[in-house]
């Protein structure tokens, strides 16, 4: 059996070191962490809704899950590029990394909307359907 006081000391040391490392993290990286947390939370929200309600709107479920997963992945890529401690991307400007993030998000979501042939927003759905009729 483990001694409870030793485990508590180790846990307290771990929490203190995590807190001090978080306080030393720059604000822009904290924003990236928050974005990744939100996308992960939305992913869990979609999965739990699907588990509780059922598979009525499976296309919407796939659209939401793929959107959350892809955006979180692209946010992690942005975080890696913007992080000052990463030596591979030290010559890459943060504005360039953010522009890559925005462009890749735009292309990613347009591909998802084209794949599912509908949009989550009714207004965008009308716009895309009217564009398909013209072409």
Write a structural description.
The chain is mostly helical and 135 residues long. It has one domain (27-134). 81% of the residues lie in helices and 0% in strands. It has 5 helices and no strands. The chain has helices at 4-24, 27-53, 58-82, 94-116, 122-134. α2 runs antiparallel to α3 (58-82). The N and C termini lie far apart (72 Å). The model has no long low-confidence stretch (mean pLDDT 78). This is Dolichyl-diphosphooligosaccharide--protein glycosyltransferase subunit DAD1. Component of the oligosaccharyltransferase (OST) complex. One of its GO terms (cellular component) is oligosaccharyltransferase complex. InterPro entries: DAD/Ost2 (IPR003038). Pathway: Protein modification; protein glycosylation.
Number of helices: 5
Q: What is the number of E strands?
A: 0
Mean pLDDT across the residues is 78
Helix content bin: over 70%
Tally of distinct domains: 1
Q: What class would the helix/strand composition place it in?
A: mainly alpha
What about the largest sheet?
none
- Point out poorly predicted stretches: none
Q: What order do the helices and strands follow?
A: HHHHH
Shape: flat
N- to C-terminal separation?
A: 72 Å
Report Rg: 21 Å
Beta-strand content = under 5%
